[in-house]
Design goal:
Elements: E1 2-8, H1 15-28, E2 33-37, H2 48-51, E3 56-61, E4 64-68, H3 73-83, E5 88-92, H4 99-108, E6 118-120, E7 124-128, H5 132-138, H6 140-148, E8 152-156, H7 163-176, E9 181-184, H8 193-202, H9 210-221
Parallel strand pairs: 1-5, 1-6, 1-7, 2-4, 2-5, 7-8, 8-9
Antiparallel strand pairs: 3-4
The structure holds guanosine-5'-diphosphate (GDP) and magnesium ion.
Residues 15-16, 92 line the site of magnesium ion.
Length: 225
């Protein structure tokens, strides 16, 4: 069994900062962690065995490896499984990725692995409280989808956001996804990250379900199916 934890959120919402803190905590708790990131400049130091499979990788600490996606996502998971055997893979999708689509992509890796099963951790979507106004105006549709498909909405950067912006972030998130758990914190100050790690360890999120996604789309765009 491999558990996949996605940290979604728009570009600049603090995903990379957050998931590195998250990984440190989980490694300290004894997990063997892999991180898959979509867009990075600095994470490109080579680790030979993973490089052999065409992945760019960097070992961050004893129990954690970080890969930049080279091939397709499902293949990256399968290769990680073969070469590193993580028990938990933390994924930073691109800022425009949709959580349910990523779930499906992750599950495709089961076809390339021998009996290994993918389990999803709760989907955490970061909402950048500092830039909530911009998010609501310029990329609203996308941010709405990322919130709608989240299990946990993590209102991020509360270290420097005003209470007004934090409140706006909460109200906006609740209006789109009243069922999501709301958490507050800051990847930079390591605030709320431990609690997020607890959720990832102890809880799961449903597998990709096409009928469920269609229902979501219908609600979003209306019309008959
Ligand atoms: N104030 C504040 N800034 C943050 C926090 N987390 C990240 N940032 C900043 O936000 C910017 C984007 O962060 P990054 O982790 O690269 O976001 P990503 O694009 O979602 O991966 C960087 O300038 C970070 O220093 C936070 O908790 N508080
Ligand atoms: Mg990033």
């Amino acid at each position: 069994m491999v558990k996949i934890a996605q940290v979604a959120g728009f570009l600049g919402s603090g995903k990379t900062t957050f998931l590195i803190e998250l990984a440190k905590i989980l490694v300290d708790r004894g997990h063997k962690i892999a991180i898959i990131v979509n867009d990075v400049g600095e994470i490109n130091v080579d680790v030979k065995i993973v490089e052999m499979y065409g992945l760019k990788a960097k070992e961050i600490s004893g129990g954690c490896i970080c890969c930049q996606i080279a091939g397709n996502f499902a293949n990256t998971i399968a290769v990680l499984q073969k070469t590193f055997q993580p028990d938990l893979i933390i994924v930073e999708p691109s800022g425009v990725a949709i959580p349910w689509g990523l779930k499906r992509a992750a599950e495709y890796s089961e076809e390339e692995m021998d009996g290994e099963v993918i389990v999803h951790a709760p989907v955490i979507t970061l909402v950048d409280a500092l830039r909530i106004d911009e998010l609501i105006t310029s990329v609203r549709r996308l941010v709405e989808t990322q919130i709608r498909e989240a299990d946990v909405v993590f209102i991020n950067k509360v270290d420097s956001a005003t209470q007004e912006k934090i409140d706006l972030s909460v109200n906006f998130s609740k209006s789109i996804n009243p069922n999501a758990e709301i958490m507050f914190g800051s990847g930079r100050n390591n605030q709320g990250v431990r609690e997020a790690a607890d959720l990832i360890e102890t809880r799961t999120s449903p597998r990709y379900d096409e009928s469920y996604e269609k229902e979501m789309l219908k609600r979003e765009y209306g019309g008959k199916s």
